[in-house]
Design brief:
Blueprint (H helix, E strand, L loop, with lengths): L5 E4 L5 E3 L6 E3 L9 H6 L11 E6 L2 E5 L1 E3 L5 E3 L18 H11 L10 E20 L4 E21 L5 E3 L11 H24 L9 H24 L14 E3 L4 H19 L18 H8 L14 E7 L2 E11 L4 E10 L13
Antiparallel strand pairs: 1-4, 2-3, 4-8, 5-8, 6-7, 8-9, 9-12, 9-13, 10-11, 13-14
């Protein structure tokens, strides 16, 4: 940090002229430059400027950090919130409903979505260029102002290790690359709802020995399971039978080759076979499931696509340059200003002129 005070002494009486546009000061100027050692030796600064003297100082700061503090005072890497050993519903809240649906379809109450290992290494620096002004209103009263110019940068290394991942793109999503995924999902739900309606109608018209025969109990059980499957498939994909989609689409679905994916496809086939055994049309379409795993590009695709509930920036290098920080206006009153002892009272008002963090950028 280097301080460069510039002193401007105005002749007394000082002449100030305010025309309609602009401000003119009639003045003679004397400039002095202090060395870094002299500037540092002044801290804490207990000086007031003599009457009519304007002091301008420039004291740049550079701050670099890769850790931050939590509310309890514990420090941790600033990339920790974007780091997880198994990205799931805790990382993408929109995956909570699909996870519940998968548990319902497969019967595995402990199932956890795992999109892979996400790791974020971040390193930030802030460059502050404050221009400080001190003007002696009297020999004991000094007006102060600070105008900071700020540059911030965030180095980001975001990686995805999909070795143990069991998830890929939701094939009904617009960014999945599957041109028929949405149509296949709508067809599956349409067939399932038609079969449910046919089975329910047969039960209501006393088919299958209803209302008290043993076959009726089996038909009612199948009807309940088929209805639950339809609800679970809607939660899993975010798609309804009429082709409409939920306001926030789940971004990922189980891989077709994963245990959960195979169990889901097996459950659909089982329901279809049971429907046919009762003389109801089965299902000719099945659930489209992904083949490829999640990548860094996929994660950034989720964050930048409003259909998934986000309208954010990708996780990459961020640089915000030459922005105005918070302006500070203040006053100093020299209580005691002798050669051997100095004391001041000072106060500042900080104006919220700086740029706030963007809620749509998770690493700025």
């Amino acid at each position: 940090m280097v301080g460069l005070p510039l002193l401007f002494r105005f002749p007394r009486p000082m002449t100030m002229f305010f025309p309609r546009i602009g401000v003119s000061l009639t003045a003679a100027a004397v400039m002095t430059i202090a060395t870094a050692g002299a500037a540092l030796a002044q801290y804490p600064d207990t000086y007031v400027s003599p009457k009519g003297v304007l002091r301008i100082s420039f004291e740049p700061w550079y701050i670099n950090y890769d850790r931050m503090f939590d509310n309890d005072g514990n420090d941790f890497p600033i990339g920790a919130p974007l780091t997880t050993d198994s990205a799931g519903a805790d990382f993408f809240p929109s995956l909570l409903a699909p996870q519940t649906a998968i548990r319902s379809i497969t019967g595995d109450s402990t199932y956890q979505i795992n999109a892979g290992v996400f790791k974020s290494v971040q390193d930030a620096d802030v460059r502050l260029f404050p221009f400080d002004f001190h003007f002696g209103l009297t020999d004991r009263i000094t007006l102060t102002a600070s105008i900071p110019v700020v540059t911030t940068r965030m180095q980001v290394e975001f990686t995805v290790d999909s070795t143990n991942s069991t998830m890929g793109w939701n094939q009904a999503a617009p960014t999945s690359g599957n041109a028929t995924g949405l149509a296949d999902m709508v067809a599956l739900l349409g067939e399932l709802e038609a079969s449910i309606a046919a089975l329910g109608g047969a039960i209501a018209s006393n088919g299958f020995d209803c209302p008290s025969g043993p076959q009726c109990d089996a038909a009612r059980d199948l009807l309940a399971r088929a209805q639950q499957l339809a609800l679970d498939l809607v939660d899993l994909t975010g798609v309804m039978a009429d082709g409409s989609q939920s306001p926030v689409l789940p971004p990922f679905s189980p891989l077709a080759s994963s245990p959960a994916g195979e169990a889901i496809l097996g459950a659909i086939n089982s329901i279809s076979a049971e429907l046919q055994s009762l003389g109801v049309s089965g299902l000719t379409t099945t659930l489209p499931l992904p083949e490829g795993k999640i990548s860094v590009e996929d994660v950034n695709g989720v964050l930048t696509t409003p259909a998934f509930g986000y309208d954010a920036a990708p996780l990459e290098f961020v640089k915000i340059t030459q922005r105005l920080g918070d302006l500070e206006l203040g006053m100093r009153w020299g209580l005691l200003q002798s050669r051997s002892l100095r004391a001041i009272l000072s106060g500042k008002v900080r104006l919220p002129t700086g740029t706030l963090d963007s809620p749509g950028n998770f690493v700025d």
